[in-house]
Design brief:
Chain lengths: 175, 99
């Protein structure tokens, strides 16, 4: 096994275990911390794929900003005891897991087989040293994808205004 | 590493998120599972981008991240206001649109 395979198995295992921990811990704080572990492992996978800028953004945006928001809300609501009684009946849980395994089998089948005869399959694998630089991403983002980029800023503006409206209405009703 | 390994890992992570949405009743954990699914999609994007040797897939990852950030901000604000009204965020108990 070469180092890349070892690192892939390591990061992949950590991210999968973290993901399973997210859905199995009872307390939301533990789930949030497991999710941070998963995000870091995925950042490692992005580095393996040569996407260094995406990996940095993953750590800063997901593991930094989004998870701080999650932890902030969990601590604000102080949900320690509430989450325990919210578990589903074991029959339904078994059904959900069976359906999930079917779904996973489907996804793996698609990942392995359905790519035949497509552009992805016929492309010759890029050399191991190929990395995508910030320059490449920036060039694409500000030329070919300039319209989606601007629409993205509209989405952020809408989210900002939406959150302010939600919180403001709350205050008016309280007073 | 072949592309298939990354896609299989992505499928498994996505499935974990789906199972989490199905079996958990806590709205915050459901949100975390949605983040897991978005991240699995990001992994597939980056893997295919690498396999094709171009950066387009990574550009889409940034769009996904932006949408995820907006979604989390609004979703958590809704969760906080629901909790203030009903003192619970169990999605089975939150069944009334009338605050």
């Amino acid at each position: 096994m070469n180092p890349e395979q070892i690192l892939f198995i390591l990061f992949g295992a950590v991210s999968l275990i973290g993901a399973i921990a997210v859905i199995s811990f009872r307390h939301p704080i533990y789930s949030a911390l497991s999710l941070i572990v998963t995000f870091f492992a995925q950042a490692g996978l992005f580095v393996l794929l040569g996407a260094h800028f995406v990996a940095a953004a993953q750590v800063i945006v997901y593991a930094g900003a989004i998870m701080v928001l999650f932890l902030f809300v969990i601590m604000l609501l102080n949900l320690g005891t509430l989450s325990v009684k919210g578990a589903m009946g074991s029959k339904l849980k078994g059904l959900a897991i069976i359906l999930g395994i079917l779904f996973a089998a489907e996804g793996i089948y698609i990942a392995v087989n359905a790519l035949n005869d497509t552009a992805v399959a016929s492309a010759e694998p890029a050399a191991a040293s190929v990395t995508t630089t910030t320059y490449d991403i920036g060039e694409l983002l500000f030329s070919k994808y300039i319209l989606p980029f601007e629409v993205t800023s509209l989405i952020l503006l809408a989210a900002l205004i939406g959150v302010i409206v939600l919180v403001k209405r709350e205050r008016q009703e309280e007073s | 590493m072949a592309l298939e390994y990354y896609l299989v890992l992505s499928a498994l992570l996505f499935t974990t998120g789906v199972i989490g949405v199905l079996i958990r009743r806590n709205a915050i954990i459901i949100f975390m599972c949605i983040e897991l699914m978005l991240n699995a999609a990001n992994l597939a994007f980056v893997a295919i981008s690498r396999s094709l040797g171009e950066a387009t897939g990574q550009v889409f990852v940034f769009f996904v991240m932006t949408v995820a950030a907006a979604e989390v901000a609004i979703g958590l604000a809704i969760i906080v206001s629901v909790f203030k009204h009903q003192q619970t965020i169990n999605v089975d108990e939150v069944n009334s649109l009338k605050g």
